[in-house]
Amino acid sequence: MKSLKKTHWKALLYGIAYGLASRAIFALEDFSHDSPLLPTYGLMTISFMFIVPFVVGLITAYRNDTVTSSLKIVGLIMPFFAIVGLIGISVIFGWEGIICALMAFPVFLFMALLGSFIGVRIFKRNKSNLYVTGFALLPFLFAPIENQLQLGDKVFSEHTTIEINANAENVWNNITRVRYISEKENGNSLFRLLGFPRPIKAELDTVAVGGIRKAIFARGLFFTETVTQMEPLKVLAFSIDADPGSIPPKALDEHVMVGGKFFDVLEGKYKIEEIQENRVRLHLTSEFRLSTNFNFYSGLWSKLIMRDIQENILEIIKHRSETDEKNNQ
Questions:
Q1: How many CA atoms lie within 13 A of 170 on its CB side?
Q2: At 152, is the pLDDT very low, low, confident or very high (cuts 50, 70, 90)?
């Protein structure tokens, strides 16, 4: 395979530069809600998440005049490097958190490759500066139209289960009040790798409907939970109240802030199902709200992360309940 030419590296730099400039313009909405300098309506939009990387791919194709002949693989390499560079720079400079970067990467890469694929065919026929200028303006022209659609609220639920070799009482004691959780107990779960604060403990003032449960996480993060359903040794359900203003700035990325504009956890429910003597199946169900114009995509990530969080919690309860069972024998 022939070596990459200087024009190919220019294509990479142009693509990254366009992506960073677009991000800076779309981010203006996050800092000036009352009177944004440009009506882009923020980063959590189809315009930025889908159309900007599509244009990045088009730009890399525009700058590579040999991509359709002797060096076709450049059509894959340059968009990939452009997206890695764009997201990598955003994370390094603290403009984006790791979780948002990882969630954005698959769709950014797909759209950039699609843009490159379409671009090489368009520019092979007509490599006009007017074409690429028109495409470069596309996200900013679509943003005001998208804003008229309003954010679409959608409530998702995630259900997980685990079987525990312990009686219902031991399990019940470990879900009503959760004592301090060590680093070792949490393990290397996905949500920890993505930068979510680890759970530390949960305190409940009274085991009754209306009781207040305080779930405490690392980095000063906590949620106030109100018991809405309680059947001793069987069911514990609670609503979850998260005040974004009380969440420390570094606890969560602003775009996945619990109780924020785009994401909120609404309620959780434990249910103990007795299978046989000293063996139960513990169910944990959560409901959460997403408010984006691409819930079809953000919902997949949210369900994956919520499932991982719940499975981690269930494993901790299982280990503790089975340990208590042995100690009480």
A1: 24
A2: confident
Q: List, for residues 181-205, the tens digit of each pLDDT value.
A: 888 887 666 666 666 778 888 888 9
Domain match, 131 and 156 both: no
Please check whether residue 1 lies inside any domain of the structure.
Answer: no
Boundaries of domain holding 77: 6-147
What strands lie across the sheet with 279-292, from one edge to the other? 152-164, 279-292, 263-276, 235-241, 222-231, 212-217, 199-204
Of 89, 123, 147, the position where a domain reaches its end is 147
Q: Is the distance from CB of 189 to CB of 312 less than 8 angstroms?
A: yes
Assess whether 161 and 299 both reside in one domain: yes
Give CA separation, 137 vs 146, 245, 320, in Å: 15, 35, 57
Q: pLDDT at position 293, please?
A: 86
Instruction: Give me the chain's average pLDDT, please.
Output: 82
pTM, two decimal places:
0.80
